[in-house]
Amino acid sequence: VGDSSVLTCPLKGQITMLTWTITPKVGGPCTLVYRADRNMTDRINCSDNINWKFRPDLDPALEIRQVGIAQEGNYRCEVASTEGNLPEKYHLTVLVPPRPSLYCDEQGSPVCEAAAGKPPAQLSWAPESNSTAEEKGHDNGTVTVLSRFTACNTSMTSMATCMVSHPAGNWSQSIAC
């Protein structure tokens, strides 16, 4: 999320027409069309952050600037050229890194939280804990994961380390409550 993504299209022969059809998971479809005979481009129902990378007659790539969750979905490029019709399909999955935090609750127990990640983050503790993670889904498709440290052995040290694992990056921090 927030980065730019470029999707390329196969280019063989002389282009007569190029079409990008975008079917997002949420919202209506978007279409970008280029016709070589008229040197004309058209866009139907596309957000401002989706556009040709340069010019469709030079580079049939699609650029999505500042990717958001709304851009997640299927992208299909079809080139009509002297070599035939050349389709290319993509499925864009958007990763949202969680906002990790570690704090002490009212009972003096360590609490680890990975807020608003997509997909949900995996939480673990050192030393090992027999705690379970609670997940709370949000309307935008992100998930907050929360875990309270519960020591397996009461004679263990008061220092606890939370480790957050996520495809967008890992994080760890220690706390003594």
Percentage of β-strand residues: over 45%
Class based on secondary structure composition and strand pairing = mainly beta
Q: Number of folding domains?
A: 2
Main sheet: which strands, in order across? 4-3-2-7-8
Q: What is the number of E strands?
A: 15
Q: Count every helix, treating DSSP H or I runs of 4 or more residues as helices.
A: 0
CATH homologous superfamily of the largest domain?
Answer: Immunoglobulins
Kindly state the mean pLDDT as a whole number?
Answer: 91
CATH class of the largest domain: Mainly Beta
3D shape: rod-shaped
GO molecular function: signaling receptor activity
Subcellular location: Membrane
Main location: membrane
Family: Belongs to the CD200R family.
Write a concise keyword list for the protein shown above.
177 residues; mainly beta; Immunoglobulin-like; 2 domains; five-stranded antiparallel sheet; four-stranded antiparallel sheet; 15 strands; 51% strand; rod-shaped; transmembrane helix; disulfide bond; Ig-like_fold; transmembrane
Protein architecture, described:
Belongs to the CD200R family. It is found in: Membrane. Residues 1-93 form the Ig-like domain. The protein has 177 residues and is an all-beta fold. The protein folds into two domains: 5-92, Immunoglobulins (Immunoglobulin-like, Sandwich), CATH 2.60.40; 99-176, Immunoglobulins (Immunoglobulin-like, Sandwich), CATH 2.60.40.10. The protein is built from no helices and 15 strands. It has strands at residues 5-7, 15-24, 30-35, 40-44, 50-52, 62-64, 73-81, 84-92, 99-104, 110-117, 122-126, 133-137, 143-148, 159-165, 171-176. The strands form four sheets. A five-stranded antiparallel beta sheet has the order 4-3-2-7-8, with no helix packed on it. Strands 9-10-13-12 form a four-stranded antiparallel beta sheet, with no helix packed on it.
